Amino acid sequence: MAIKMRKAIIKETGEVKYANQIPETQKPDLICHSCHTDIRHVNRHPRELPSGSRTWVPAYFGLKSKGQHNEGCQYVPKHLVEKVIADSQLGANAEQIFNAKENGSADFRLHIPIEALKIIQLMTEADETKTTEDAFSGTKYIRNHEQLNAYLNTTNQLMTLRALVEKERDLSEHVNIVLYGRKIPWRKFFYDEKRYPDLIKYLGKSEQKHPICLLMNGIKKKAYPVRDGWKPAWSLNSYEKGIDPRDNVTRWLSISVKTKDQGLFDAINDGADIAVLFSPKLKEGYSESNGVQYVNVSGDLYHKQQICIIS
Ligand SMILES: [Zn+2]
């Protein structure tokens, strides 16, 4: 079980170092700064961009194979999950987003954040004839702003954990995702850069879609100014090269999430790695620009808790 860690202790000197402070040619013996188990350093690695330039995926510390954090260590996933669940508890009259199981795991009820996204979409798009409270009418799980924020906050914490664990099973053995009583595999909810072909495949299917969590590395920010009849908008974009499963041709997957909230846009730095909760749409076919082929996936951002800043 392993969470990616940013800092560690050099065994020989006792110094605390961040992953990016360890020179790539050095291999010092390292221990976890929380429980002192032996750990390893994973060097940063380059990522290509469609322009031909490159960016870097940051270095981190992880467990050695078959290594384990000691009981009580802050990086034990089980404890991190327990903390998210404890923090998520709402009063007796509210729906709980986690449902504890007898075997010690918990169900995460995905339909609750889905309802939350629908409410904030309605509030964002409400015209003057409606009040934002209208967005809550007819909802099944969420009654007020306090609950809405609490559910999104919990969802954000769980997404952050998923982005930080080295393997899916580090989290999936503690938390199941459940949508209206039906179990959804984690791999259908969370997509990192290596699984973009799976995302294209999923979006191309005719089955009913649910929002997903997507890891976007090294984002590029783009502003769309006011134009005739258009309100200003901002987007966060990322690019990853992979094989398009529809015809086995290598293309760039271009992800673009748009928002009309400048505050949300300003809070993210260019080049950041983020995880985003949104409802993606796949544009049919592919586009081509300067000899580079793109598959385009887009979606909307309404609330800051849809974004987890990973690094
Ligand atoms: Zn540890």
Distance between the termini: 21 Å
Overall tally of structural domains: 3
Task: Detail the poorly predicted runs.
Answer: none
Bound ligands: zinc ion
E-strand count? 21
Give the rounded overall mean pLDDT: 91
Specify the structural class: alpha+beta
Strand content: 25-35%
CATH class of the largest domain: Mainly Beta
Order of SSEs: EEEEEEEHEEHHHEEHEHEEEEHEEEEE
Largest sheet: 6 strands, mixed
Query: Can you count the helices?
Result: 7
User: Can you tell me the overall shape?
Assistant: globular
Rounded radius of gyration (Å) = 21 Å
- CATH architecture assignment name of the largest domain: Beta Barrel
Overall description:
With 311 residues, this protein is an alpha+beta fold. It folds into three domains: 7-63, no CATH class; 77-184, no CATH class; 195-309, OB fold (Dihydrolipoamide Acetyltransferase, E2P) (Beta Barrel). The chain is built from seven helices and 21 strands. The protein has helices at residues 77-88, 111-125, 145-164, 168-172, 186-189, 196-204, 262-266, and strands at residues 7-10, 16-18, 30-31, 38-42, 45-48, 54-57, 60-63, 98-100, 106-109, 175-179, 182-184, 190-191, 212-216, 220-224, 233-244, 249-259, 274-278, 281-282, 287-289, 292-301, 307-309. Strands 14, 15, 16, 18, 19 and 20 form a six-stranded mixed β-sheet that branches. The longest helix is centred in the middle third of the chain and has 20 residues, at 145-164. The protein is globular. The two termini are 21 Å apart. It binds zinc ion. The site of zinc ion has 7 residues, from loops.
